Amino acid sequence: MVSEPELLASVPTQLWIGGPVAATGGATFPVENPATGETLIEVADASPEDAMRALDAAVAAQDDWAATPARQRGEILRAVYERIIERTEDFALLMTLEMGKALPESRNEVRYGAEFFRWFSEEAVRIHGRYQTAPTGTGRIMVHKQPVGPCLAITPWNFPLAMGTRKIGPALAAGCTMIVKPASATPLTMLLLARLCSEAGLPDGVLSVITGRRSGAITAPLINDPRLRKLTFTGSTEVGKKLVESSAHGLLRTSMELGGNAPFVVFDDADLDAAVAGAMLAKFRNGGEACTAANRIHVQNSVLAEFTDKFVAAAQGLELGPGADPKTTLGPLVDDQQLETVSELVEDAVAKGAQVRTGGKAPGGPGYFYPATVLSDVPADSRILREEVFGPVAPIVGFDTEEQGLAAANDTQYGLVAYIYTQNLDRALRVAEGLESGMVGINRGVISDPAAPFGGVKESGFGREGGTEGIEEYLSTKYIALP
Ligand code: NAP
């Protein structure tokens, strides 16, 4: 495994527009290590003019890339997949350094993120149209799928690789060019990916990466430029709404993967040990910094005490520490702001009467550490039941009947994912159908799969990533009428 200084010395830190390019005036900004609060490295800070250079490159490359045979596009994607897997340890360490998560979590993300290139390398050759006789018998209908054109992807920091590859894989497979604007907290992973894509034979301009701190200023001119044909965003609901508003001006096609407030519902007929294991994954995977993280744990009152005791014991087994330390199973939060938000939500619940069963207080010192925390007796008016905590805090609440459990699960403006634990098949299907969410896990604590359609309803957004649905987001449908 490469050492930390060697890795940092070798990663690209300039913008990637057909290769490494300095930002206007050589501007840079610092990337911080959340485990120490210290600067890791300086990265190019793009200007709006730099962003326009990336769009010029994407527009220039678009026609040739769309005309590249699908088999060839697929083979380049497959080569990128192989290269990411070869460099698993480098990507994993890089993500741990810039985002904080424990190394085993980073390795899981490398495998998951890389898989979007393999999956969409296989989907590239399965873009189908349709040909049929019109019902009147007076003509024929041909339906043809074409790439939408140059796309902009704006991605968050919580999965620095996978939130990019989930968009880049299908866009490139469909024949679109793409500009990625990664989160300013975690720009390094995308820059390394761009270099790998180039080494794997991706033509210049097909994928550009613009890093920068002024996200609104550098993305606005792209969104307002009619040459851009699609915006795909993963991030908070608040920013997503602003981007939908600004995209309305040119009726830009958009997909929005936004915030979540996932309920994790345990019924009295569940296998409680399996439910505890599932809740540990759904809550503490990625340090709780996942849009799919269980935000509220609803447990039927007859098994509430037993579930809570077992869950608290399991949460106490997590080892808080720097992500790069092999003993660590729970890394730091991404930054001081996230630490403040998590602390505030816990303090609010406790002030209203919640009981701290474990954790509940940041240890202080350098780095943005917060312990695995379980709260019981959480009052209904606690902010933590309404707002996305995005940290390792599990509020547990009880319910009596199935109807009450379902109503509590649906009592949110979000609708990304919901988890249920029950051994009763009728109940599982009935509740799954009644849940207002884009995804449901039945007796599963992790559901993400590159071969499945990922996405939400309500204020969790619209559009799907992964599965056979994922590539449709980057295709437009043309109807050709024939005699
Ligand atoms: P965020 O603050 O909304 O930022 C996401 C991205 O948008 C970053 O690249 C950010 O750049 C950029 N951005 C911020 N303001 C912008 C503006 N005015 N115009 C253009 N771009 C702007 O979200 P985050 O804190 O990074 O990520 C956490 C959120 O993402 C959570 O709500 C989580 O649920 C959601 N998420 C959703 C999914 C999903 O699939 N549904 C997956 C993962 C995460 P800067 O970094 O420079 O601010």
TrEMBL record:
<dbReference type="InterPro" id="IPR016163">
    <property type="entry name" value="Ald_DH_C"/>
</dbReference>
<dbReference type="InterPro" id="IPR015590">
    <property type="entry name" value="Aldehyde_DH_dom"/>
</dbReference>
<dbReference type="InterPro" id="IPR050740">
    <property type="entry name" value="Aldehyde_DH_Superfamily"/>
</dbReference>
<comment type="similarity">
    <text>Belongs to the aldehyde dehydrogenase family.</text>
</comment>
<dbReference type="Pfam" id="PF00171">
    <property type="entry name" value="Aldedh"/>
</dbReference>
<dbReference type="InterPro" id="IPR029510">
    <property type="entry name" value="Ald_DH_CS_GLU"/>
</dbReference>
<feature type="domain" description="Aldehyde dehydrogenase">
    <location>
        <begin position="25"/>
        <end position="480"/>
    </location>
</feature>
<dbReference type="InterPro" id="IPR016162">
    <property type="entry name" value="Ald_DH_N"/>
</dbReference>
<protein>
    <submittedName>
        <fullName>NAD-dependent succinate-semialdehyde dehydrogenase</fullName>
    </submittedName>
</protein>
<dbReference type="InterPro" id="IPR016160">
    <property type="entry name" value="Ald_DH_CS_CYS"/>
</dbReference>
<dbReference type="InterPro" id="IPR016161">
    <property type="entry name" value="Ald_DH/histidinol_DH"/>
</dbReference>
<keyword id="KW-0560">Oxidoreductase</keyword>
<feature type="active site">
    <location>
        <position position="257"/>
    </location>
</feature>
